[in-house]
Design a protein that fits this description.
- The complex is a heterodimer of chains A (289) and B (215).
- In chain A, 17% of the residues lie in helices and 35% in strands.
- Chain A is an alpha+beta fold and 289 residues long.
- The relative contact order of chain A is 0.17.
- Chain B has two domains: 2-78, Glutaredoxin, CATH 3.40.30.10; 90-196, Glutathione S-transferase Yfyf (Class Pi), Chain A, domain 2 (Up-down Bundle).
- In chain B, 49% of the residues lie in helices and 7% in strands.
- Chain B has helices at residues 11-22, 43-48, 67-78, 90-119, 126-149, 163-173, 186-196, and strands spanning 3-6, 28-31, 56-59, 62-65.
- Chain B has a four-stranded mixed sheet with strand order 2-1-3-4, with helices on one face.
- Classes of the chains: A alpha+beta (289), B alpha+beta (215).
- Chains A and B meet through strand 7 and helix 4 of A and helix 4 of B.
- Bound molecules: glutathione and fe (ii) ion.
- Fe (ii) ion (FE2) binds at residues 118, 122-123, 240 of chain A.
């Protein structure tokens, strides 16, 4: 079976293909990963099998179940996936908030997720509000040890930070990008200001300019129903979608000089540099050296 | 009390939210989780609408499905000024009904393309959906162009917009989510801009407010 994608950097990753909550045991599901049709099936709560749909031999692909999602690789994936310890904290509510197809590259999707500057305009009245439009200074590092991009000390005023907020508040943010197509956002919980809610976006590249964006939340909130949480997140993501689809070029330029520094802010620059260091080619416009 | 069985990302539900906002009516939004819950196909919802479709409106003893039917009802019942759906002129009423039905045709093309690209309704033939949408957009673009030549701003003649404009707006405004560009339809783009400036206009995810006036 021929796989059309040839970029080893992306082939050797774990890729999210479905949240567990929507799957029925022993039912074959089909999806697309890096332009290849794949099929998978949940055999038990701990075991899943996956194969290239057009492969008569049905050679099994590497799979794993982590953080409420099925992950598949078309190459030789690392032994471990990034760490996400909050997922297993017993007092948290983990909700998969839905998967959406977007006509854009994975890199653009992750980058938009890191950008606080769009809150007051795109999520007006919820995650931001004029005149509170300033993105205050924050710190970004590429952690060698954890191999991830980390943005800390981010602050933003939000009229409705989460489904259970009843007033505007200054929210602290931390962003983690521990995987080329996955990002986690940690923000002050409206019920306990010593702890952080987590919002995740795990992107499945179907093609270079077409993705499935899997979204989810890991919240300290035992009052909102899963359905209310999903609704909130769908509103937010529905607002982001047209912004993403109007990005030009649709693939992510890794040379930050191609775009103005306002759009490509500090965390975006670090993210692009990190992808560049990894030598990623798929879905990006590599920087000329 | 008016109740709307409602899903935030649905363009057909948005038609009704627009009408309710234009008429400044209070209502209760009863959320039905279309995605990922498929609640519109649940047994409980099929009792409300056996077609398993949103929106549905309930008002005192009436339960009404189909966005266009609901627009007619709300306009006739609550629009005291008789603007959104005038019935004194049979020709105009006929034309309104014609474009209401056109609005539903756009659901079958542009909305289907959006469901394919966004929510993975892979049973739709995406190329064919987009082609049909373009054919429909061309018809509307031409119609609106000739309306403008006659100093008419809306789909049906008259000073004010009608429910025909409401029925056509959402899935045109959301078309790019189904990969259908509006680049070649300048009269549609101007009409959308006028529509967004109607008093009481509201947005939904994927639809933006009017930009600053360009002159
Ligand atoms: N003619 C109906 C069409 C409504 C429709 O297509 N609704 C969508 C949501 S936007 C739906 O519920 N689709 C499910 C289905 O058709 O099975 C109307 O105008 O209300
Ligand atoms: Fe956003």
């Amino acid at each position: 079976m021929e796989i059309s994608c040839k970029d080893p950097v992306i082939l050797n990753q774990w890729h999210p293909v479905s949240s567990l909550d929507v799957l029925t045991m022993d039912t074959v599901e089909n999806t697309i990963l890096l332009e290849s049709k794949i099929s998978f099936q949940l055999n038990s709560k701990e075991e899943v099998t996956a194969w290239l749909s057009l492969d008569d031999e049905k050679t099994l692909l590497p799979t794993r179940i982590s953080y409420g999602f099925i992950w598949v690789s078309l190459g030789n994936p690392p032994k471990d996936l990034f760490l996400f310890p909050e997922f297993s904290e017993s007092d948290r509510q983990n909700v998969a908030t839905g998967v959406f197809g977007v006509n854009v590259s994975a890199g653009r999707t992750v980058e938009n997720f890191l950008d606080m500057g769009h809150f007051p305009y795109v999520h007006s009245g919820i995650l931001g509000e004029e005149p509170h439009t300033e993105v205050k200074e924050y710190d970004v590092e590429i952690s060698e040890e954890r191999d991830e991009v980390l943005a800390t000390s981010c602050k933003f005023y939000q009229p409705q930070a989460a489904v259970n907020s009843n007033e505007g508040m200054d929210v602290d943010y931390i962003y983690r990008v521990p995987h080329i197509n996955c990002a986690l956002l940690y923000k002050t919980s409206p019920v306990d200001d010593a702890r952080l809610d987590v919002i995740i976006i795990f992107v499945q590249p179907m093609g270079e300019e077409w993705v499935r964006a899997h979204t989810g939340m890991c919240l300290i909130d035992d009052e909102s129903t899963a359905e209310q949480i999903r609704q909130f997140q769908q509103t937010i993501f529905g607002q982001d979608k047209p912004i993403l689809e109007n990005q030009y070029p649709k693939q992510l330029p890794l040379d930050s000089r191609i775009e103005t520094p306002i759009r490509a802010d500090k965390s975006a620059i670090a993210y692009r540099r990190w992808l560049s260091q990894k030598g990623l080619q798929y879905g990006v416009i590599p920087s000329a050296i | 009390m008016i109740e709307l069985y409602d899903y935030e990302l649905s363009g057909n539900c948005y038609k009704i939210r627009l009408m309710l906002s234009f008429l400044k009516l209070d209502y209760v939004s009863k959320k039905v989780e279309f995605h990922p819950g498929k609640e519109h196909k649940s047994e409980k919802f099929l009792e409300i609408n056996p077609l398993g479709q949103l929106p549905v409106l309930s008002d005192t003893n009436l339960v009404l499905r189909d966005a266009q039917a609901i627009l007619v009802y709300l306009a006739r019942k609550y629009d005291k000024k008789n603007i959104w759906c005038p019935i004194d002129d049979p020709e105009k009423l006929g034309l309104i009904a014609q474009w209401l039905s056109f609005g539903d045709l756009i659901t079958g093309s542009s909305s289907a393309a959006r469901l394919h690209d966004t929510l993975f309704y892979t049973e739709f033939d995406i190329g064919e959906c987009r082609e049909r949408a373009h054919a429909q957009f061309r018809i509307l673009d031409e119609h609106l162009f000739f309306q403008e030549q006659l100093n008419q701003s809306w789909i049906c003649d008259g000073e004010k917009p009608t429910i025909a404009d409401i029925a056509c707006f959402p899935y045109i405004a959301l078309s790019e989510e189904g990969g259908i560009s509006r680049m070649s339809y300048p009269a549609i783009r101007r009409w959308m801009d006028r529509f967004k400036r109607i008093d009481g206009f509201i947005v939904m995810p994927g639809v933006f407010p009017a930009g600053p006036r360009s002159f």
